[in-house]
Amino acid sequence: MIALFRHCLLACAATALTIHVAYGEPEPTALVDQQHCMFCHTRDAPFLAPSFQQIAEHYRNAPNAQTMLEHKLRLGGKAHWGDTPMPPAVERGGPLSAEEAHTLVQWVLSQ
Ligand code: HEC
């Protein structure tokens, strides 16, 4: 019985590890839903907005990207990808704290 339990523990840990490696940072689902990120973005296909993979790729070697994107996510800013800027947080579903913006950007850049 104990052996069975240990086996499960190992298997579950291994599964969690695989998911983590395959998809980068875990999705902050509550924030993503509240802010409707997936209304305009998808993970891997450009839709109304660049995909999160394109964004991650674009900023991979940009040292200030994290800070710049956190600011943009909270307060909006000029468009970098086309003519349509992303609406600021208050227009997407409510104000975003610095900590929440940090979590979201870290997740996007890990895609
Ligand atoms: C109403 C549609 C919409 C929603 C909702 C939305 N986005 Fe965007 N997002 C856009 C558009 C359009 C762009 C491209 C803007 C540009 O050209 O800089 C963009 C760009 C971005 C960028 C890149 C910005 C840059 O300067 O390169 C990031 C990062 C991003 N979005 C993350 C998010 C996250 C995270 C959420 C949810 C919290 C979200 N977006 C919700 C439309 C949206």
From TrEMBL:
Which parts of the sequence bind heme c? 37, 41, 86
Protein keywords: Electron transport, Heme, Iron, Metal-binding, Signal, Transport
Q: Which InterPro entries match?
A: Cyt_c-like_dom_sf (IPR036909), Cyt_c_ID (IPR002324)
Record PTM? Binds 1 heme c group covalently per subunit.
Q: What are this entry's molecular-function GO terms?
A: electron transfer activity; heme binding; iron ion binding
Q: Tell me the leader sequence span.
A: 1-24
Q: Keyword Transcription on this protein?
A: no
Q: What is this protein called?
A: Cytochrome C
Which species does this protein come from?
Paraburkholderia antibiotica
